[in-house]
């Protein structure tokens, strides 16, 4: 019970992190958690930017169906982030927004998002891979127990997103290179019935493991000496409704690495096999000798 309460508290902290302060028309302010980070987590900036965009769309049943974003500079976790929203267009079926995240007078991130009213139409999706159930896989603390002493306080910190690796974690897979990985993920607790919040939390979580995939074919991981990795851009398409506090399978693949960049794609399925979200990300991947 204590563990569950800790996880719900961590999830509630994430909800508050995404609850931006409106300081002027089309201008919002977000903060970062008090963690020992050198830079702001990319998923946090993407999630907060989507919140900012969403709050300028009238409550008329329009939900984000796609977003395209670029990470421009590392974010400073010690100061707030300003999100400036440009209301590009409001049509009969679609609305478009552009968001720029500002720190120290410079743009660190920009995002374009498109919102659509719910419509009926043709329907199909690729089948979900056949993988073990998430409950049969180790959670973070179980999987990382051998590294507990090295991780220190980071090991015991409650986490708002429960991630379970189907094929083993990146560090364990360095001896068995491949071009794919599958993880189950969910918000570790209960979320309110606010679909916008579910979309923003999945946006946050989508950046947690995807870039790791581009290192897998080369038998390396982000924590290896001399390895430099950073997200460059991020795109998402939202196909079908989902709950972020229900299990979602994140099926990830890397088709190419070249010119110090790696490309990764991800398909996010609901537990009953519906393709909910498609994600594509390119990241920097340098290996210094």
From TrEMBL:
Transmembrane portions of the chain: none
Q: Return one Gene Ontology term, BP aspect.
A: fatty acid catabolic process
Q: List, for all copies, the residue spans of the domain called Acyl-CoA thioesterase 2 C-terminal.
A: 180-284
The reply on keyword Hydrolase is yes
The residue ranges of the Acyl-CoA thioesterase-like N-terminal HotDog domain are 39-116
Say yes or no: keyword Lipid metabolism present: yes
Family as reported in the entry's similarity comment: Belongs to the C/M/P thioester hydrolase family.
According to UniProt, the name of this protein is: Unannotated protein
């Amino acid at each position: 019970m204590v563990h569950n309460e800790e996880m719900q508290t961590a999830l509630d902290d994430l909800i508050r992190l995404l609850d931006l302060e409106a300081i002027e028309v089309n201008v919002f302010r977000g903060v970062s958690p008090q963690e020992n980070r050198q830079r702001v987590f990319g998923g946090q900036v993407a999630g907060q930017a989507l919140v900012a965009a969403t709050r300028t769309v009238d409550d008329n049943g329009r939900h984000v169906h796609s977003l395209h974003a670029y990470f421009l500079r590392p974010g400073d976790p010690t100061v707030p982030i300003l999100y400036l929203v440009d209301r590009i267009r409001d049509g009969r079926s679609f609305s478009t927004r552009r968001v720029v995240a500002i720190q120290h007078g410079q743009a660190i991130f920009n995002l374009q998002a498109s919102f659509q009213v719910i419509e009926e139409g043709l329907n199909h999706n690729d089948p979900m891979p056949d993988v073990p159930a998430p409950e049969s896989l180790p959670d973070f603390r179980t999987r990382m127990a051998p590294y507990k002493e090295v991780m220190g306080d980071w090991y015991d910190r409650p986490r708002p997103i429960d991630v379970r690796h189907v094929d083993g974690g990146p560090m364990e897979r360095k001896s068995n290179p491949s071009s794919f990985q599958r993880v189950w993920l969910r918000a570790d607790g209960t979320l309110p019935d606010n679909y916008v919040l579910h979309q923003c939390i999945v946006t946050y979580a989508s950046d947690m493991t995807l870039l790791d995939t581009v290192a897998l074919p080369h038998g390396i991981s982000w924590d290896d000496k001399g390895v430099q990795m950073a997200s460059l851009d991020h795109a998402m398409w939202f196909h079908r409704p989902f709950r972020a506090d229900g299990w979602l399978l994140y099926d990830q693949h890397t088709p190419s690495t070249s010119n110090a960049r790696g490309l990764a794609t991800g398909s996010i399925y609901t537990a009953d096999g519906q393709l909910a979200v498609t994600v594509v990300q390119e990241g920097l991947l340098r290996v210094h000798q």
